[in-house]
C-alpha cells in the first residue's frame, strides 16, 4: 500500500480530494486543473509498470490499474460521459482484478502474505471505496455554492528568447478567393473550404495548378523506374528490435530463467529446471523454446512469432503483449492467461484439458485439443473476442458471439 501513500503525499492529492465540499463547482477548464494532480499520479504510476517485468509485476499492475477508480470525483452529471460514481468504482476495479487474481493463483500455496495483500487491495475498493461513495456521494461530489472558485492556471508567459515562428505552409491547391477570410462568411478550414469552392458556382478546376509538359511521365527523363544509389541509401528501413539488448538464456539467482532478445533461434532448450523456478521470455522473435521439466510459472512478454513447448507448470502460463505466438502444453497447467495479444495458438494435452484459460484485450485465440482416438485429428476451438451485453432484470447479461466451426 506504500505506492498509494508515496504518490499521493508527493502531489498533495489527499488534501485536495478531502476539501471538495469547500470549493465551488468548476467549469471544464477549472475541473481539468483540479484533476491535474490525480492525472499526474496515475501517469507516474503507469510509468512504474512499464519496461521489463519484475517478479512483482502483477502486484504493481493491480495497484496501478486500480487507481482509475479515484476518478469518480470527476463525475459532474449524466452529460459528462462517465458512469455514475458507484458504477465507476466497480468498473475500474474490474481492470485491476485481472492481475489481482493472478496473485491469488500464484501464491495460493506458496506465501499467504501475498494472498492477504491481494485481498486487502480488493477490500480497499470493494467494499471500501464503493461503500464510502455510496453512503456519501452516490450522485457525485457535493460542491459548495459559496466556497473558493477553482480556475484554470494562467498561461505561462512566453520566453523572451523564443525562436522565430516557422515559415508559412506552401500554397494550397485551392487558391480561389473563397478560401480567404472574409467578414461575412468567416474563415473555413480543410474540407469545408473545398466544399465551399465546389458550391460557389465557379468552374471547379479554375483554382487548380496546371500540369505542365515537363511534369508528365512520358516526358520525364527518369521514367525507367530504377532507383539511384543515393536514393537507396536514404530509404533503408530500420531493422526490427533495433533497441534490443544482447540475447540471453541464463538462470538468475538460482530462481529465474531469463530468455531475452533471441531472434531466429529454433532450438532453444531449458532442461535443468525445477518446480521452484520461473521462466521469463522477453523480446524474442521467430524463435522456439523448449522447457523440458516442471517449473513454477512461465511468462511470454512482447514476443513475435514465438513458439514455446513446455511440460508442466505449477502456477500459470502467461502471454502478454505478444503477436503470433504458439504454445504447446505436453503435461499439465492449472491456468493459462492471454493479455493484450493478437494471434495465439494453444495446443493442449489430455492432462491439461481441465485448464482455466483467461483472456483480456486479445484476438485470434485458437485452442487445439487432442481427439478422442489416439490417432484422431486435433479439434480446433476459437475463443470468442466479441460479446453481446443485454440489460435484463436490473443487470447486464453477457454472452459471447457464436463462432462457426468452434
Automatic annotation (TrEMBL):
Basic and acidic residues bias: start-end ranges: 210-223
The protein's name in its UniProt record: C-CAP/cofactor C-like domain-containing protein
Comp. bias intervals (Pro residues): 155-171
UniProt family annotation: Belongs to the CAP family.
InterPro entries xref list: Adenylate_cyclase-assoc_CAP (IPR001837), Adenylate_cyclase-assoc_CAP_C (IPR013912), C-CAP_CF_C-like (IPR017901), CAP/MinC_C (IPR016098), CAP_C_sf (IPR036223), CAP_N (IPR053950), CAP_N_sf (IPR036222), CARP_motif (IPR006599)
One of the Pfam families matching this protein, by short name: CAP_C
PANTHER family with a match to the protein in the record: ADENYLYL CYCLASE-ASSOCIATED PROTEIN (PTHR10652)
UniProt feature, compositional bias: Low complexity: 172-184
Disordered: annotated segments: 147-188, 204-246
GO biological process annotation, one example: cAMP-mediated signaling
SMART domains, per the entry: CARP (SM00673)
GO cellular component: cytoplasm
Molecular function per GO: actin binding; adenylate cyclase binding
Location of the C-CAP/cofactor C-like domain: 246-383
Amino acid at each position: 500500500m506504500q505506492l498509494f501513500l508515496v504518490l499521493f503525499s508527493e502531489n498533495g492529492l489527499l488534501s485536495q480530494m478531502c476539501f471538495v465540499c469547500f470549493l465551488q463547482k468548476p467549469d471544464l477548464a477549472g475541473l481539468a486543473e483540479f484533476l491535474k494532480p490525480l492525472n499526474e499520479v496515475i501517469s507516474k504510476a503507469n510509468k512504474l509498470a512499464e519496461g521489463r517485468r519484475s517478479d512483482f509485476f502483477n502486484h504493481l499492475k493491480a495497484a496501478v490499474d486500480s487507481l482509475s477508480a479515484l476518478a469518480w470525483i470527476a463525475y459532474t452529471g449524466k452529460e459528462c460521459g462517465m458512469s455514475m460514481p458507484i458504477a465507476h468504482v466497480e468498473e475500474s476495479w474490474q481492470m485491476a482484478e485481472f492481475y489481482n487474481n493472478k496473485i491469488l493463483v500464484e501464491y495460493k500455496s506458496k506465501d499467504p502474505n501475498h494472498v492477504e495483500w491481494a485481498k486487502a487491495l480488493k477490500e480497499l475498493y470493494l467494499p471500501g471505496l464503493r461503500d464510502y461513495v455510496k453512503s456519501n456521494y452516490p450522485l457525485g461530489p457535493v460542491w459548495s455554492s459559496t466556497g473558493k472558485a477553482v480556475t484554470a492556471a494562467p498561461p505561462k508567459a512566453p520566453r523572451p528568447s523564443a525562436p522565430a515562428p516557422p515559415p508559412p505552409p506552401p500554397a494550397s491547391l485551392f487558391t480561389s478567393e473563397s478560401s480567404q477570410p472574409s467578414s461575412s462568411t468567416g474563415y473555413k478550414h480543410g474540407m469545408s473550404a473545398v466544399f465551399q469552392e465546389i458550391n460557389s458556382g465557379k468552374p471547379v478546376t479554375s483554382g487548380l495548378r496546371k500540369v505542365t509538359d515537363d511534369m508528365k511521365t512520358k516526358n520525364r527523363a527518369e521514367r525507367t523506374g530504377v532507383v539511384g544509389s543515393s536514393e537507396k541509401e536514404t530509404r533503408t528501413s530500420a531493422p526490427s528490435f533495433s533497441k534490443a539488448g544482447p540475447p540471453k538464456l541464463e538462470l538468475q539467482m538460482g530462481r529465474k530463467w531469463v530468455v531475452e532478445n533471441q531472434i531466429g533461434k529454433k532450438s532453444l532448450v531449458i532442461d535443468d529446471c525445477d518446480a521452484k523456478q520461473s521462466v521469463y521470455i522477453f523480446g524474442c522473435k521467430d524463435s522456439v523454446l523448449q522447457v523440458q521439466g516442471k517449473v513454477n510459472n512461465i511468462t511470454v512478454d512482447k514476443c513475435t512469432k514465438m513458439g514455446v513447448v513446455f511440460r508442466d507448470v505449477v502456477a500459470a502460463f502467461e502471454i502478454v503483449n505478444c503477436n503470433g505466438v504458439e504454445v504447446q502444453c505436453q503435461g499439465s497447467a492449472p491456468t493459462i492467461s492471454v493479455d493484450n495479444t493478437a494471434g495465439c495458438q494453444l495446443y493442449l494435452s489430455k492432462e491439461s484439458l481441465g485448464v482455466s484459460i483467461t483472456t483480456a484485450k486479445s484476438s485470434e485465440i485458437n485452442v487445439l485439443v487432442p481427439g478422442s482416438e489416439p490417432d484422431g485429428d486435433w479439434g480446433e476451438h476459437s475463443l470468442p473476442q466479441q460479446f453481446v451485453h443485454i440489460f435484463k432484470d436490473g443487470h447486464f447479461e453477457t454472452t459471447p458471439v457464436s463462432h462457426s466451426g468452434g
